[in-house]
# Entry
Amino acid sequence: MAQLISLDSLTAPTTARQMEKSLSEGGCSSSSCGSSSGPADLAPEIWEKVKDHPCYSEEAHHYFARMHVAVAPACNIQCNYCNRKYDCANESRPGVVSEKLTPEQAIRKVVAVANEVPQLSVLGIAGPGDACYDWKKTRATFDSIAKVIPDIKLCLSTNGLALPDHVDEIADMNIDHVTITINMVDPEVGTGIYPWIFHRHRRWTGLDASRILHERQMEGLEMLAARKILVKVNSVMIPGINDEHLIEVNRVVKSKGAFLHNIMPLISDPAHGTHFGLTGQRGPRAMELKALQDRLEDGTKLMRHCRQCRADAVGLLGEDRGQEFTLDQLPAEVSYDPNKRAAYREVVAAERGEHVSHKAAADAALADVGEAPTLLVAIATKGGGRINQHFGHAREFQVYEVSPAGIRFISHRKVDQYCQGGWGEDATLDGVIEMLDGISFVLCAKIGDCPKDSLKAAGIAVSDDYAHEWIEAGIAAWYKAEYGAEIRLSA
Amino acid sequence: MALKIVASQCTVCGACEFECPNVAIRMKGDIYVIDPKKCTECEGQFDSPQCAAVCPVPNTCIKA
# Structure
């Protein structure tokens, strides 16, 4: 059910003064990593908005699920990383065509999912084109669903070009969360990313296109911030084009009131047919992405748990149950049953308390380790906050940073599954080792001798001694065994 | 004087439908078609045909 989380802020002391401080600073004063902010460093009304939103709260993403409905296929700009012959590569894993829905079909799908997936807390429209440009369909979908499931959070994602035209409606419709994709704040940089835009009845190219887009994005961001709507800024990190520039983007969007900044790696592959894919523009390596994110730690809160999900994704981040809810599988008539979701919320309320105490115990255990290095640890987990995945079955690893100062969630890294029905593929293992670049240690539920030796040869230690422990407890125990005195596991 | 949509290239995103000032574009089955009786190629209305200007796929809204 639940996966792992960083709970730093939940364990930190809360004072009214801190709350006032974070309120006056627009919620951007967090000293903790990522969007793991809890009540400790957020104003109560902001915490209320983000606590159940898996994309805005790293903590929530282990408990709550989102779904996107692909009702907005039309777009008003062309991005070099996107090929709309298929889908927006930014919002969905490319190469898989999503099922476009009419607003009526979307309502049916949302109700069917809400009845089956009690974790559902957020309905988003992320294209596959642009939710603000294809506004009539976005609006019709949200208006109808708000009548059927009043407590579902509404969320949309846009390139920002048409955003200023709809901000008042967005506010009226109680859309709490808006994501704007901002890849540059300098139109010169934009010319390498946007070949054209469609605005005011004509197509604009070159510097004009990027200048208009930039002005509209800034206008939209400021209008949303003025209305206290939480804005997440997504930026696609494109090595050699905007990687260094994203430092400036971070500074600007922070100053204009963005709540969260999510830097995503460019997805680029010739098979996707995108301009960048076809011209050999590479995406950043995991450590390059981390290096950039680390330089921005003092900026707007960074989101590190983004899975760059599809425009029709369903489920917890990191899983996609979209294929279970395709149109042909939906009943013709659906009626909403709120009981499952209500029961699940009660369970989560209890779980969250338990997690907090385990995380606090792990951090406390590290406090008396003296001088020790800061290391990255990769965890194989299938959820529940525990080290409970077989190494060979892992499709992604959750990466944590550990130092005497504590343990914090850094990112996830996708890998090709190494083990298939008992057989491991050496070629795949090489790929896994490559993806574990920079990792010192791997904790998993079980691993065979052969991959263990290969990892060791690559300089990565691995252990299944901490199988089924809480993740933080396992990391703390291993770290302390390496660098400090023996400690008792807290689980 | 009218434009047409090359159905094999069309992504069915629908952007042209709501940009068309003449309401000449509509869904016919699974594809979008331009009604040649209504299409003016946007002459006298805009600098260039709106469907072609907004279409994400090059050479998909072309002269019939």
